[in-house]
Structures are given as structure tokens and as C-alpha cells.
Design goal:
The protein is built from 6 helices and 5 strands; from the N terminus they run αααβββαββαα. Strand 2 and strand 3 form a beta hairpin.
């Protein structure tokens, strides 16, 4: 099974949104994270720990993605109903003016102790003025490295296969290596 874009049941006004690499990659990453957290929690937690330095493997972590029409972060991470982290995925699109600052402000309004906004992007951080202090910046090649480690740690062949499929997509999109120069 290879992850593929399919817009057959998507209303025409949303086809461009689904076609975006950002949306596709966000959904694929969210799926893999949620899959690993359910089937191989220690492997899933290793990835989350690298994204937001939180390492309580006893908690029930859930991953959700936004609906195509919503103007909220691409991925949300919850624990026992508490919002912990937003992940905004961008590889080929620009950030909106103050977009991440709004996400950070919204997240800070929650009472949880651990809160983080992560910007996950391709090769460079364009519009640096739209990235406020305190936003963790992660590049896709770093996710690729985490997935490579997860692939070796995963016990179930299906889990390994799914992780390797996302790694293949990242390689195909030239997001698996750090751009030099």
C-alpha cells in the first residue's frame, strides 16, 4: 500500500487544497504518528519527544488534522483531551502574516503545562519575520531521520512498511536531505 492523493470524493472547491504538498505531507505524517502511537507507542513517543521535548510514554496521545476548510494548524497533538502542540506544515507555501503568532497565542490560552508550536518546513524558513520567538523549527530532513530510526526500531513489518512509505515520499520530493549552499 502506497500513500496516494485521491480527490474523488472531495468537493471541487477543495481540490486545490488537497493537491497541496503541504496538506498531503501533513496528513501522511499525522497518520504515521497516530499509527505508531497506537501500535508501537515507544517508537511514536521517540518522534514526538524530538518534536517537542515531552517524554511521558504512559499518556494517551492523539493526533488530529484540520478539515480542509478550517484555518487552524495542520496537526494538533492532544493528551487526555488536553491540547499540547500545534504543528504547521509548509514545504511550498508561504506563512500568513502573524499566522504562527496567532497559533501560539491560542495555544497559550490553554491551561496545560506543556505547549508548543512547531513549524515543519522544507529547505529554508522564508518570511522569517512571521516566525516569532519560541516557535520550534523543524525541517523535513530531520523528520526523515526520525522516521529512519523508527523504521529500525519498529517490530511489526506493517509498521516498518508504512514508515518506509512516508520516507519514500520524502525522498521523491527531495525533502530527505539537507539542502547545501
Amino acid at each position: 500500500m502506497e500513500l496516494q492523493k485521491s480527490s474523488s470524493s472531495v468537493p471541487p472547491e477543495y481540490e486545490d487544497l488537497l493537491a497541496s504538498d503541504d496538506n498531503y505531507l501533513a496528513y501522511a505524517l499525522a497518520f504515521i504518528l497516530d499509527w505508531l502511537l497506537q501500535r508501537e507507542p515507544s517508537v511514536g513517543f521517540q518522534i514526538l519527544h524530538q518534536l517537542y521535548a515531552y517524554n511521558n510514554t504512559g499518556e494517551d496521545i492523539r493526533i488530529s488534522t484540520r478539515a480542509l476548510s478550517q484555518r487552524i494548524p495542520d496537526i494538533r497533538v492532544f493528551s487526555q483531551g488536553k491540547l499540547l502542540m500545534y504543528i504547521e506544515v509548509t514545504s511550498d507555501s508561504e506563512l500568513g502574516c502573524h499566522q504562527l503568532a496567532r497559533y501560539k497565542e491560542t495555544l497559550n490560552s490553554y491551561c496545560e503545562d506543556i505547549k508548543s508550536v512547531v513549524l515543519l518546513t522544507g529547505f529554508s524558513f522564508r518570511n522569517d519575520e512571521n516566525v516569532p520567538l519560541g516557535i520550534k523549527r523543524v525541517r523535513w530532513f530531520e523528520i526523515y531521520k526520525l522516521l529512519a530510526h523508527a523504521s529500525t526500531e519498529a517490530q511489526d513489518p506493517l509498521d516498518k512498511y508504512l514508515v518506509q512509505q512516508l520516507m519514500s515520499i520524502l525522498r521523491d520530493k527531495n525533502l530527505a536531505i539537507e539542502k547545501v549552499g
